[in-house]
Structures are given as structure tokens and as C-alpha cells.
Amino acid sequence: MTQTIHQNQVEMNVLWQLKNLKETLYTGKWEVKTSQQAVWFFYFRLGRLIWCEGGKNNEERWQQYLNIYSPQLVSNNQKEDKYQTLASLYQERKLSKDNLVQWVSSFAEEVILDLVQVTETQELYNKKIPDQIPSLLISLISIEPLLNSVYQVWQSWKEEGLANYPLSSYLKVQDQEQLLNENRMILNQELIALMDGTLTLRGMAAKTQVKLVQLSQILIPFIKSGAIALSSEPALKPSPQQQTYNHSGEKILTQIQSSKKVIACIDDSVGVCEQLKALLTAASYEAVMFQNPATALSQLLKNPPDLIFLDIMMPIISGYELCKQMRRAPRLKTVPIIILTGKDGWVDRAKAKMCGATDFLSKPVRKEKLFEAINQYLSYEV
Q1: For domain 169-253, is the CATH number 1.20.1530?
Q2: At residue 224, what are phi and psi to the nearest 5 degrees?
Q3: Nearest CA among 109, 119, 111, 96 for reference residue 150
Q4: Distance from the first to the final alpha carbon of the chain
Q5: pLDDT tier, 12 (very low <50, low <70, confident <90, very high otherwise)
Q6: Pairing state of beta strands 337-341 and 359-362?
Q7: 260-377 carries CATH number 3.40.50.2300
Q8: How would you classify residue 57: left for phi > 0, otherwise alpha for psi between -120 and 50, otherwise beta?
Q9: pTM
């Protein structure tokens, strides 16, 4: 039986229905149509996502992901079974399990974002077709993390007044000089080169391996200022300056690779490590994370970084003691060490200086302060 999702229920109904399919361990196809005949469909097995696709930009989206994960395969056949193509790539060992899961997850996240935004202006109709799923199951994805990410990104998009700009828009730099001169520690040349009108926000997140939530938060201010433009259609040709990447997001040809700075973070908090890694990776630094301070020292002695962020309150050994040990090691003696702590008193600052710390950064870490510190203690040429 077909159900109607009314406009005044907006995007929450879509996310709720997808979550309900997960919680009820649904097996089968869930199909959604708009009043303008756009179609999306999702396949589930016992509440886990097998595959989904649909919407206005589905073919462009598919081509983007082919270019990222399987650049050797070129397809212009709009009627091809995309899931079967994935299965063939995986079975022929042209696609690893990790890349397969990342492909399906990233693709699904963009499909859901597309559907959520459509609910703002169009009426949707949906129906369930139980037990209709692909015969070959190559991946089963937990959908809840995708729904949480979609919700956060869409809320940020709306709060910044960008609800009328599709999240499936293509990113294109309008003022490269401004971005390089004023924001070089946040957006450097490597990241800017990707915004040539051939990638959407989600496609860019997949290529750089930065979480969509963090990437959208980084780019929104530049979109609002007009330094980055959004287009509903992809650029016909990549710009001559476009860089080449492989499917894991690593640069193949670059003049910057040899001088890429390495920044280490030692913090027992998973959340802090993920936040810093996302911000640093987006700015094209090599980020090395350690949650176990006991093993961090030996690893850093083998491969000294260019800068270290160090938490104070950690189990086994405190940040103060670890800082002293690093300063006694000749290979780490001159590396800038920035203390991270929620305590910002003069006593704490004095302790940090006494143990050899270079500077002090308060938690929660703010993006602007983070890059101010990096800019002060690193000379990063782009």
C-alpha cells in the first residue's frame, strides 16, 4: 500500500522511515517517488542497507564514484545495473572490500541527502516491496551512522541559509587568490584544485576521505562569502590545473607532496583525534593520531613529526611527563609541542612551560585557534 509523506513533515519523515526500516529488520525494496516523477530506491536485508540510488543527478554521481574508485572503468550506459557492476568489480578483485564498503556508504549518504532536500519542496510517495533484493549480497551497511551524518550536514546547511542550494551541487572556486592568501592554513592548493566544478560536496568528501560533516563545516563560510560557487551542472571539462588522484584519495602527481608537513596528536579521546584528523587532512597535512601515550613516544622517535599536539590528562602517563621525555630525546628536542587541555589557568601554563611545551591550546579546540597555532609554528609553503 502506497503511503504519502506530506510536505509539512519535511525531511525528518524520510530519516525516520529509513531508521524504522532498520529497526524493524526489514528485508526488501523501499521505493520513493516525487510528484515530479523522480525515483529513489533502497534495498535492505534484515534492516541493513544493501544498495540505494536515484534522484536527478544519479548518473553524474555514479560517474564521480567510478572515477574515484575504479578510474579504469568508463561507462556511459545509463541503463546498466550499477549494483551488478559493483559486484563484478569486487568478484574480479578490482575493488577491495574496504573500498567497496566506502563506495556504498558514501554513495548512499549522498542519495539520502538528495532525498532529504527534495522533501523541502515536493510531495513524496513511498511503497515497500518485501523480499525483493539482489540475488548476490556483496555488502551490508549499517544505515544509522549515515542518517546521523545526513541530519547534521543538512541542519548546518539550513542554519547557514543554504537550504535552496542543492547538496548535490558542484563546487567551483570563484576567487582562488583570495582563498590562498586569506585561508591558506584551512584551504591550501591541494584542496582548492579539487574544486574545479567536477565534484559535488559528497564526491569531494569521498575523494579526500574527510567526513562529510567536517568538510561541509569547513567549506560553508567560503560558499557564503562567494569565494566558492555552487552549480547544478558539472563542468564540461576539468581545469588544466586539475591534479590526479587514485581511488584512496592520495595524490599521484604533485609538487607539494615532498614538503607535506606531518602533525601528530596524542590524546586518549577518540572524538578529539577524529576532529583534529578531519581538519588537518582537509588542509592537506599528514595527520598521525595516537590514543595510547605509552606507545606514542617510541613511534615518534622513529618518525619525528613537524609538530605535536599533546593532551595533558591521560591514563598511564600524564602529558606533562610525556612532554619531558620527548624533550630529552635529541630527535624531538626542537619539535614544537602544543599542550591541549580543558584547564586554562596560569598554573597549568607554567607547568606546560616547565616541562618544555612550546605553547598551550584550550579545549574544546576551535578551528581558528588550531590553524593560528599551526601557522605560527610551521612554515607551510603552497
Answers
A1: no
A2: -65, -35
A3: 109
A4: 58
A5: low
A6: parallel
A7: yes
A8: alpha
A9: 0.55
